[in-house]
Design goal:
There is one protein chain. The chain is an alpha+beta fold and 91 residues long. It is 26% helix and 30% strand. It has two helices and four strands, in the order αββαββ. α1 packs antiparallel against α2. The C terminus is likely disordered.
């Protein structure tokens, strides 16, 4: 399921951004899994700019937290944070 979320992010970048560079960072900790996707497109933050409904739905299906951020002077940053379910069973 996380792959489908990632695939959707890349498809949205291709369709809606003039990005020439995409960076993906995947980090696993004992408690969480963090997927961060950044790009250098010319998307400008506006009050109406929200994650696509399909990304929101996919994050919800994964029981994850979706964050869309616009760092100063950079393109959009999409973050997905998931509970590392494995940690629920380890003591």
């Amino acid at each position: 399921m996380m792959f489908l979320f990632y695939k959707e992010c890349l498809a949205n970048i291709l369709r809606h951004s003039d990005a020439t560079h995409v960076n993906t960072h995947l980090k696993a900790t004992p408690k969480n899994i963090h997927l961060t996707i950044t790009e250098n497109g010319n998307t400008v933050k506006s009050p109406q700019t929200e994650p696509s409904p399909s990304l929101v739905r996919r994050a919800k299906l994964l029981s994850g937290k979706l964050i869309l951020d616009y760092p100063e002077g950079k393109g959009p940053e999409i973050k997905l944070i998931l509970n590392n379910r494995k940690s629920l069973f380890s003591h």
